[in-house]
C-alpha cells in the first residue's frame, strides 16, 4: 500500500471542524446588546459563561473601559505608523509598567502569534537547535518551523517528557549554538503546567539549554504583580529564558509582551523582529486599557483578585471531587478538562450543557488528539459559587446521558486517556438484532460466504487471504508477523450486513509522510531498524489495496452494523494495545463519513487508486486508437518503439534460482521507492507465490543486443495474482534499474494489460502508485480516503516538523 499524503493537514482539520460546526458547537456567534462576562447569549438562549479566558474578569473593569474610550477620543481609533519610526504616545508608559511587572526589559507586540513570528527567527541563530514540546501552542510551532529554511534542526518530544528532552540535548551538544526548548507555562486545554523546577535543574546541568516559554494562560491570575505562572515559580527571569505573556485574555486588554533579561538579544529583537517591525502597532484604545490594567497589576489589588479567583477554583475542584466526572488533570489553574473520548460524545455533551443554560468549550483535534475530545471549562471571577455548584450538578446529570446516547461508557473514556486501571473489563455489546462473528483465520470462514462479498478485487478473496496467512502468520521477525481478524456481522436471519478484515502489523511511521521525511528517517534506520515504527490495526493489510469493507447499505440495520464494527475495532485496539487504527481505501465522500469522524477518526487523502475497467470490451488490435490523443502520442513515443526489445515469459512454478532473481529485482524497487515505504516482503513470500496456482510471474528479458553483457538478461518481473476469472492484480514489481532507459517500467505495465486481456480478464487492479503513468495507458484513476485514529498526536506532529528538512 502507498503512503497516505501528509500535505493535507488543513483539509484534515477542516473535516473535523466542519463536522463540529454541523453539530452546532463551533463557529457560533454571541448575541445581545451587551456583555457582562458572567452570561453569554447564543442562538437566542441566555447561558452562564464558563468558556472565557478572561479569568480575572478585567475585560469588564470600568477603569479599563474608561481608559479605552478616552484614548479613542484623544488619539483616534488607530495610530497609523510603524513602531520602528514612532510609537503611540501611550506606549512608553506601558513599556515602563510591563518592565516593572517582569523586573526586566519588555517588548510589546500586536499579539502573541505575530510576536512569536518576530522573536523566534531573531533569537534563534543558524548554529542553534530547537526542541518542541508536542503540546506547545500552535503559534510557537508555526513560527519555529520557518527556521527550517535556514537549516536549523527542529525536533519534538512527548509532552513534559524530560528524559526525552535530555536525550535530545545530548544529541545536539556538539552544535556550536544554543539548544532551545519551547514550551507553554500553562497549557491551554488541560490546564497542566511546565515542570519549571526540573527544567531549571536541566539548565544548570546543560548551559547550552535555553527556554522559550509561552505563558499567556498563566498570566495575571498567578505570580508577583500577576507576571504569570512561570515568574511565580522563578522569582526573577534568568538570562537563558525568553518569556511571552499576554495583554489580552486575563490581562483584559489586547496585545502580548516579551520579557528578556539578555540585553544584547533584547536589542537585536527590538531592532528588527520581522512582524514587530512591519506590522501595525496596537490601537490607542488597547494600549490605554493595558496601561490601566498594568496599574492594577502593580498595586496590592492584584493579589485580592487572584485570591478571589483561587477560592472559586478550589470550590470547583471540591465539587468535582464529589462526582465521577473524568477530570483529566487536577491542578490549581482556572482551566479544567472533562474527557468525553469520542468527538460525537463531546458534541452531544456540549449541546446538552448549552440547552441546560451553561456555555462550555469543546476541546477537539488538533488542540487535542481526536480520541481525547472533551469539554474545556474555565472559571473566572465573574462566576458565582452557586452557578459553579449548579454547573457541576448539571454536568454530573447530563454526562451519563451523553455517554449512553452515543454508545459509549465511562470505561471507554478512561481507556482513551490511558487510565488503564479504570478501563479494565471494557466490553462493547452488539445490538440484539445483530450477531458479530470475529474469526482469527480465513480457514474459520466459509469460502463461499467470503467470496460472495469480497472476491473480485485485489488479493483478498478466500484464496488470497489463505496465501497471506501462509506468508505472515509465523514471521521470523516482527515486521513479518501479522495477526488477522475477520469480521462478519449478520442479522437474526443470518444475512450478512457487514464483512471486513483487518490486520495488526508493524508499520513505518513515515508511511504517513513525504518522501523527504522518509529519506531522513531511513538514514537513521541503517543503525536502528525499528526507529519510528508503530503497531497498527488496519483495515486490510500492508500487502493489499481496495474496498476491504463490504457494507450492505440496502439493509435497514447497516448503520447499527457499522457502529458495532467500529466499537469492536476500538475494543480490539485497546485490548492488543496498537498505536493506531487505520480504515483505508474509501471512495471520495462516503455517505457515512460523519459516523467515522464522530467515532474519533481523522480523514486524510490517500494516493489515487488505478484500475483498468471493462478490459473485456477492449480490442487490442485497436487498443492505441482507443486512448486519448495525448496518451496515443505517449504510447507511440515511449512504449511502442521499445516493445521489440524485450522477450516476455510467463512463469507459473519458478525454480529456486529464478525466485532468487525475482526477489533481487523486487528489492531494487523496494530500496528505491520511498513513496511506498514499507518493510520489504519476506523471502518466504516469493517461494509461497511460486507454489500457489493463483500467482504467476510476468517476466521481461532484454534481448542480447541491448544488454551490457551481450547476452539476454532478465530485467523485469511483475508479480501477478489471478483473482477468480475476472480480476488480474499486478501486486508488486521488480526491475533492474540499469535498463530503466529502455522504458522498462512502461513495458511492464503494457505487458500486464496484454497478458490480462489474453487470459480473458475483465479488470486489472493496478494499485496506488504512479497513477499518471497508468492513466496514460488507459487506467481509470479513483481518489481515495483513509480514516485514522491515533492514541495521541505525537507521531503525526513529530513527523510534521521534519518536513522540508
Write the layout of secondary structure elements.
Blueprint: H1 9-22, E1 30-31, E2 39-42, E3 45-49, H2 62-75, H3 91-102, E4 106-109, H4 112-123, E5 129-133, H5 138-145, E6 154-157, H6 162-172, E7 179-184, H7 196-205, E8 209-214, H8 229-234, E9 241-246, E10 256-260, H9 263-271, H10 275-278, H11 284-297, H12 301-320, E11 335-341, H13 343-355, E12 358-359, E13 361-363, E14 373-378, H14 385-405, H15 410-416, H16 420-423, E15 434-439, H17 447-454, H18 462-472, E16 483-491, E17 496-508, H19 515-525, E18 533-539, E19 549-551, H20 558-576, E20 580-587, H21 593-598, E21 602-612, H22 629-639, E22 646-651, H23 656-672, H24 683-691, E23 695-702, E24 713-723, E25 727-735, H25 744-759, E26 763-767, H26 771-776, E27 780-790, H27 794-800
Helix pairs in contact: 2-11, 3-11, 4-5, 12-14, 13-14, 18-24, 23-24
Q: Quick summary of this structure?
A:
This protein has 805 residues and is an alpha+beta fold. It has 27 helices and 27 strands.
What does this 3D model show about the protein?
Keywords: Aminotransferase, Transferase. It comes from Sediminicola luteus. Residues 712-774 form the BioF2-like acetyltransferase domain. Pfam families: Acetyltransf_6 (PF13480), Aminotran_1_2 (PF00155). This protein is an alpha+beta fold and 805 residues long. It has 4 domains: 10-49 and 302-423, Aspartate Aminotransferase, domain 1, CATH 3.90.1150; 61-297, Type I PLP-dependent aspartate aminotransferase-like (Major domain) (Aspartate Aminotransferase, domain 2), CATH 3.40.640.10; 447-605 and 787-800, Aminopeptidase, CATH 3.40.630; 611-783, Aminopeptidase (3-Layer(aba) Sandwich). The protein is 37% helix and 21% strand. Strands 15, 16, 17, 18, 19, 20, 21, 22, 23, 24, 25, 26 and 27 form a 13-stranded mixed β-sheet that branches. The longest helix is centred in the middle third of the chain and has 21 residues, at 385-405. The relative contact order is 0.11.
Amino acid at each position: 500500500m502507498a503512503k497516505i499524503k501528509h500535505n493535507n493537514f488543513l483539509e484534515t482539520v477542516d473535516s473535523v471542524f466542519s463536522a463540529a460546526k454541523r453539530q452546532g458547537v463551533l463557529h457560533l456567534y454571541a448575541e445581545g446588546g451587551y456583555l457582562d462576562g458572567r452570561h453569554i447569549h447564543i442562538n437566542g438562549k441566555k447561558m452562564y459563561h464558563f468558556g472565557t479566558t478572561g479569568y480575572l474578569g478585567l475585560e469588564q473593569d470600568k477603569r479599563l473601559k474608561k481608559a479605552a474610550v478616552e484614548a479613542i477620543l484623544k488619539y483616534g481609533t488607530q495610530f497609523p505608523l510603524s513602531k520602528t519610526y514612532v510609537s503611540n504616545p501611550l506606549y512608553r508608559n506601558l513599556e515602563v509598567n510591563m518592565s516593572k511587572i517582569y523586573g526586566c526589559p519588555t517588548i510589546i507586540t500586536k499579539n502573541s502569534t505575530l510576536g512569536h513570528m518576530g522573536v523566534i527567527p531573531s533569537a534563534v541563530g543558524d548554529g542553534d537547535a530547537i526542541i518542541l514540546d508536542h503540546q506547545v501552542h500552535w503559534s510557537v510551532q508555526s513560527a519555529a518551523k520557518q527556521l527550517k529554511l535556514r537549516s536549523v534542526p527542529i525536533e519534538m518530544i512527548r509532552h513534559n517528557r524530560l528524559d526525552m528532552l535530555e536525550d535530545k540535548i545530548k544529541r545536539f551538544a556538539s552544535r556550536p549554538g544554543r539548544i532551545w526548548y519551547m514550551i507553554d507555562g500553562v497549557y491551554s486545554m488541560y490546564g497542566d503546567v511546565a515542570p519549571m523546577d526540573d527544567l531549571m535543574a536541566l539548565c544548570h546541568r546543560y548551559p547550552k539549554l535555553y527556554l522559550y516559554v509561552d505563558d499567556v494562560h498563566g498570566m495575571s491570575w498567578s505570580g508577583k504583580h500577576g507576571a504569570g505562572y512561570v515568574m511565580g515559580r522563578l522569582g526573577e527571569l534568568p538570562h537563558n529564558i525568553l518569556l511571552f505573556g499576554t495583554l489580552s485574555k486575563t490581562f483584559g486588554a489586547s496585545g502580548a509582551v516579551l520579557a528578556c533579561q539578555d540585553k544584547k538579544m533584547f536589542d537585536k529583537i527590538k531592532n528588527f523582529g520581522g512582524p514587530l517591525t512591519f506590522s501595525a502597532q496596537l490601537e490607542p484604545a488597547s494600549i490605554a486599557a493595558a496601561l490601566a490594567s498594568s496599574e492594577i497589576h502593580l498595586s496590592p489589588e492584584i493579589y485580592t483578585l487572584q485570591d478571589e479567583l483561587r477560592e472559586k477554583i478550589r470550590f470547583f475542584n471540591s465539587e468535582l471531587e464529589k462526582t465521577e466526572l473524568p477530570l483529566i488533570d487536577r491542578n490549581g489553574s482556572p482551566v479544567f478538562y472533562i474527557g468525553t473520548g469520542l468527538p460525537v460524545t463531546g458534541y452531544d455533551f456540549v449541546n446538552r450543557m448549552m440547552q441546560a443554560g451553561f456555555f462550555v468549550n469543546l476541546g477537539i483535534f488538533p488542540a487535542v488528539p481526536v480520541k481525547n475530545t472533551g469539554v474545556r471549562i474555565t472559571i473566572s471571577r465573574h462566576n458565582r459559587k452557586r452557578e459553579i455548584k449548579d454547573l457541576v450538578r448539571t454536568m454530573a446529570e447530563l454526562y451519563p446521558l451523553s455517554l449512553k446516547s452515543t454508545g459509549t461508557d465511562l470505561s471507554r473514556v478512561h481507556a482513551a486517556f490511558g487510565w488503564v486501571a479504570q478501563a479494565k473489563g471494557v466490553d462493547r455489546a452488539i445490538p440484539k438484532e445483530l450477531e458479530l462473528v470475529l474469526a482469527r483465520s480465513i480457514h474459520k470462514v466459509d469460502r463461499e460466504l467470503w467470496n460472495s462479498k469480497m472476491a473480485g478485487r485485489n488479493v483478498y478473496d478466500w484464496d488470497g487471504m489463505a496465501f497471506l496467512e501462509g506468508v505472515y502468520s509465523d514471521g521470523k521477525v516482527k515486521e513479518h508477523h501479522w495477526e488477522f481478524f475477520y469480521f462478519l456481522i449478520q442479522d437474526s436471519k443470518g444475512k450478512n450486513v457487514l464483512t471486513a478484515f483487518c490486520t495488526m502489523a508493524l508499520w513505518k511511521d513515515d508511511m504517513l509522510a513525504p518522501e523527504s521525511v522518509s529519506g531522513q528517517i531511513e538514514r537513521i534506520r541503517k543503525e536502528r531498524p525499528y526507529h519510528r515504527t508503530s503497531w497498527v490495526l488496519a483495515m486490510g493489510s500492508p500487502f493489499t489495496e481496495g474496498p476491504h469493507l463490504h457494507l450492505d447499505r440496502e439493509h435497514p440495520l447497516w448503520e447499527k452494523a457499522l457502529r458495532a464494527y467500529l466499537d469492536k475495532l476500538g475494543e480490539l485496539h485497546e485490548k492488543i494495545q496498537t498505536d493506531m487504527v487505520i480504515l483505508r481505501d474509501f471512495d471520495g465522500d462516503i455517505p457515512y463519513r460523519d459516523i467515522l469522524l464522530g467515532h474519533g477518526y481523522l480523514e486524510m487523502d490517500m494516493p489515487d487508486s488505478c484500475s483498468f475497467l471493462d478490459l473485456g470490451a477492449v480490442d487490442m488490435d485497436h487498443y492505441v486508437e482507443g486512448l486519448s490523443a495525448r496518451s496515443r502520442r505517449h504510447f507511440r513515443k515511449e512504449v511502442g518503439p521499445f516493445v521489440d526489445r524485450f522477450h516476455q515469459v510467463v512463469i507459473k512454478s519458478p525454480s529456486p534460482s529464478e525466485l532468487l532473481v525475482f526477489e533481487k529485482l523486487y528489492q531494487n524497487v523496494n530500496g528505491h521507492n520511498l513513496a511506498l515505504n514499507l518493510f520489504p516482503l519476506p523471502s518466504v513470500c516469493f517461494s509461497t507465490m511460486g507454489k500457489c496456482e493463483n500467482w504467476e510471474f510476468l517476466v521481461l528479458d532484454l534481448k542480447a543486443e541491448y544488454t551490457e553483457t551481450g547476452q539476454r538478461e532478465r530485467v523485469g518481473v511483475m508479480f501477478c495474482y489471478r483473482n477468480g476469472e475476472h480480476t488480474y492484480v499486478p501486486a508488486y514489481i521488480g526491475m533492474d534499474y540499469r535498463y530503466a532507459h529502455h522504458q522498462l517500467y512502461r513495458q511492464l505495465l503494457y505487458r500486464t494489460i496484454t497478458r490480462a486481456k489474453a487470459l480473458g480478464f475483465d479488470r486489472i487492479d493496478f494499485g496506488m502508485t504512479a497513477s499518471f503513468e497508468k492513466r496514460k495507458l488507459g487506467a481509470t484513476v479513483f481518489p481515495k480516503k483513509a480514516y485514522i485514529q491515533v492514541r495521541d498526536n505525537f507521531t503525526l506532529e513529530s513527523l510534521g516538523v521534519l518536513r522540508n528538512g
